[in-house]
Amino acid sequence: MMLTTLLIGLPIIGATSTGHPMALYLEFPPHTRYVQHAPFSWPAFAFVGTGELLTAAVFIFLYLPRRRETYPIAARQKFPWWGLVSGLFVLCFWTLAWKRFGWFKPFQNFTFTPLWLSYVVFVNGLTYRRTGSCLLTHKTRYLLFLFPASALFWWYFEYLNRFAQNWYYVGGELFTPVGYAIHGTVAFSTVLPAVISTLELLESYPALMHTRFQRPLILGKPRAHAGTILALASCGLIGIAASPDTWYPLLWVSPLLILVSLQVLLSQENVLQKLERGEWHVITLPALAALICGFFWEMWNHYSYPKWEYSIPYVQRFQIFEMPLLGYLGYLPFGLQCRVVADLIERLAGSPEKSGEPEQC
């Protein structure tokens, strides 16, 4: 209850200082562009770009080999037939999303979901090929739970975007409010399954599970630190609505910090406990998984219709597909956020990993 109150209520508090009527933030489907973003700025671009380069340098450092290491060879399996079929579906729906076949016009608006469902199954097939198990075959209930949780998860970011207006949809006017809600819910349900399936594939590579830096993160007085971070992250959510041009990056950070801080304060299992054991891959691999998915989201979106476009203060330049170059930095904390939420869903699903036997649904 406290988490919901903070996540929903804090942006509303910030919005009261803007002078905009609250009805604008509640418009559905969202059409009105009421946030006028700052133009491109070279100093801001250089500042954020430096941060992006430093982040890339950290990733490279973490995976530079310290010495010649050998890892056990995975027990490879035959690539499953359903993985092959899903790969063909990826190519099929990719083509349909980008082309404008006359015979397909009545269905042109509905390519996103089957494309990403095919991606999820295909990535599970790759994981099964490497390890002999995957979410689809051995943690089926957990994977199924991720779909409705994902829809709720991404609708929350749509809610935050009502205050920041960093992205908007072209073609959304084709839907009625009910149609928009249904179409969005179905499409958003693929986000967590895609990121977590990609994460599981990355975790099947032993070299990615062993970072160069393995020292534990020791935080004295963790509850005091969590309280401070909770307060700062809460201010961030207020700032997103009160001053979007300044605070918009915290859209991808503040919800994560609030959730983890509350977990620490309530003595619940949290990602910091793994960092205390030196397991830094719990940060690097989810970030990389989201970045991989982000590349495909942006690429497949580029020639699709309907589609989304961006309006990001100070750095709206040098687009790769529709996303400005520096915008990809947001996928890194988003990946960790996906991991934290997925861990919660796994505990709720009561789906401990089976060793050898597929899960029965």
Architecture overview:
The chain is mainly alpha-helical and 361 residues long. The protein folds into two domains: 79-214 and 281-353, no CATH class; 222-279, no CATH class. The protein contains 15 helices and four strands. It has helices at residues 2-15, 22-25, 42-62, 81-98, 112-131, 135-138, 140-164, 177-188, 191-203, 222-242, 244-247, 254-265, 271-275, 281-302, 331-349; strands at residues 167-170, 307-310, 319-320, 323-324. The protein has a two-stranded antiparallel sheet with strand order 1-2. It has a two-stranded antiparallel ribbon with strand order 3-4. A hairpin with a 2-residue loop joins β3 and β4. α5 (112-131) runs parallel beside α9 (191-203). The radius of gyration is 21 Å and the shape is globular. The mean pLDDT is 91.
SSE inventory with pairings:
Elements: H1 2-15, H2 22-25, H3 42-62, H4 81-98, H5 112-131, H6 135-138, H7 140-164, E1 167-170, H8 177-188, H9 191-203, H10 222-242, H11 244-247, H12 254-265, H13 271-275, H14 281-302, E2 307-310, E3 319-320, E4 323-324, H15 331-349
Antiparallel strand pairs: 1-2, 3-4
Helix pairs in contact: 1-10, 4-5, 5-9, 7-8, 7-15, 9-14, 10-12, 12-15, 14-15
